[in-house]
Amino acid sequence: MKITRQKHAKKHLGFFRYNFGVREPYQLLLDGTFCQAALRGRIQLREQLPRYLMGETQLCTTRCVLKELESLGKELYGAKLIAQRCQVRSCSHFKDAVSGAECLLSMIEDGNPHHFFVATQDQNLSLQVKKKPGVPLLFIIQNTVVLDKPSPKTIAFVKATESGHLFSVHQKQNIKKLKEEQGLVKTSEPKKKRKRKGVSGPNPLSCLKKKKKVQDSNQSSAPEKKRRKRIRNRNRIKALSVPSVRQSEEVQSNSVH
């Protein structure tokens, strides 16, 4: 029985992988009802789900699911502990929280681009999920986890894409990537935002004191003394020479007499 269940799971996973690009690690969105059923059936989700899906899994939930479990009180305390151990995926309900079912439905809108699995025991939520193509559905029956077969809505969508009338999100992404590789689509470069200049203060360089010029090592540190040029006064020399000549003449005249 276990081998047959894994064969069906492998077949369904191959369908979602080929047509919708579902890949590892599989992201499983858990609600409160699924956590409560796993607690009652003593199912070790972190151990059994990777074996059943034959791949790496990530157990996820949302803030709305956690708040819903908190509001329900002590009866679902164990389910709340299981949900708190899961990774919390951000939803669009930051201010006003909604019900867990409504939040999970919002996470798989627009063609389920993040390839979420939905794990729930809520029948109404399961019917809403089956109306959205490309969303794998998990539930617990007889204390075992089961991957539901593709819904009629999903099969009809795949047939429409094969006939060329519709394109899935995965196919659109592949077509866009091929066009970019072949240069058919111009990839727009992100524009750089100009930085606004704020009120600038004084230039710090202008506030610095001026540095004295450093003299070359060849030049001596002490200033050179200027040499005085001796200028001869020619008129004074002449004036001194005239009386000496007169004295010599007088000496000669006296000697004659």
Automatic annotation (TrEMBL):
Species name: Sarcophilus harrisii (Tasmanian devil)
Feature: compositional bias, Basic residues: 225-237
UniProt GO MF annotations: mRNA 3'-UTR binding; mRNA 5'-UTR binding
Name of the protein this chain belongs to: rRNA-processing protein UTP23 homolog
Cellular compartment(s): Nucleus, Nucleolus
GO CC terms in record: small-subunit processome
Entry function: Involved in rRNA-processing and ribosome biogenesis.
Xref: SUPFAM superfamilies: PIN domain-like
Biological process terms in GO annotation: endonucleolytic cleavage in 5'-ETS of tricistronic rRNA transcript (SSU-rRNA, 5.8S rRNA, LSU-rRNA)
Any Pfam family matching the protein: Fcf1
Gene name linked to the record: UTP23
Residue ranges occupied by any UTP23 sensor motif region domain in the UniProt entry: 193-212
UniProtKB keywords: Nucleus, Ribosome biogenesis, rRNA processing
Keyword Nucleus assigned: yes
Chief localization: nucleus
Region (Disordered): 182-257
Family statement: Belongs to the UTP23/FCF1 family. UTP23 subfamily.
Xref: Gene3D superfamilies: 5'-nuclease
InterPro entries in the cross-refs: Fcf1/UTP23, PIN-like_dom_sf, UTP23_sensor
Biased composition annotated in UniProt, kind: Polar residues: 244-257
